[in-house]
């Protein structure tokens, strides 16, 4: 018996493959994609897999953070990749 489960992903922040370049990145961590297909295509250097982002200020944290902006056209999930 198979089950289909739908997961709504409105931006890369909703995806389990979304990560970041690290807190020691100059200017702050940048969002990056760790999906297996992206790593195979763009390489293991996370800076080559950076997701387009915007800078947003959060009062609660009293700092500006980089937030993924939508879903890029090169997203493997938009191009037939599996959400594994």
Describe the structure.
With 84 residues, this protein is mainly beta. It has a domain at 12-68. The chain has one helix spanning 36-42; strands at residues 18-20, 31-33, 53-58, 63-68. A hairpin with a 4-residue loop joins strand 3 (53-58) and strand 4. The radius of gyration is 14 Å and the shape is globular.
Q: Report the biggest beta sheet as strand number plus sense, adding barrel if it closes.
A: 2 strands, antiparallel
What multimeric state do the chains show? single chain
Q: If strands are numbered along the chain, what order do they take across the biggest sheet?
A: 1-2
Q: Give helix % range.
A: under 10%
Which structural class should the secondary elements be placed in?
Answer: mainly beta
Mean pLDDT: 92
Order of helices and strands: EEHEE
SSE diagram, text form:
Layout lengths: L17 E3 L10 E3 L2 H7 L10 E6 L4 E6 L16
Antiparallel strand pairs: 1-2, 3-4
Which labels suit this protein?
two-stranded antiparallel sheet; globular; 1 helix; 4 strands; 84 residues
Would you kindly provide a brief summary of this structure?
This protein is mainly beta. The protein has one helix spanning 36-42; strands at residues 18-20, 31-33, 53-58, 63-68. A hairpin with a 4-residue loop joins strand 3 and strand 4 (63-68).
């Amino acid at each position: 018996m198979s089950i289909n489960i739908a997961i709504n992903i409105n931006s890369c922040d909703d995806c389990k493959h979304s990560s970041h370049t690290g807190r020691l990145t100059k200017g702050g961590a940048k969002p990056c994609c760790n999906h297996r297909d992206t790593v195979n295509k763009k390489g293991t250097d996370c800076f080559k897999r950076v997701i387009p982002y915007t800078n947003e200020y959060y009062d609660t944290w009293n700092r500006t953070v980089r937030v993924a902006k939508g879903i890029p056209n090169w997203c493997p999930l938009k191009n037939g990749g599996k959400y594994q």
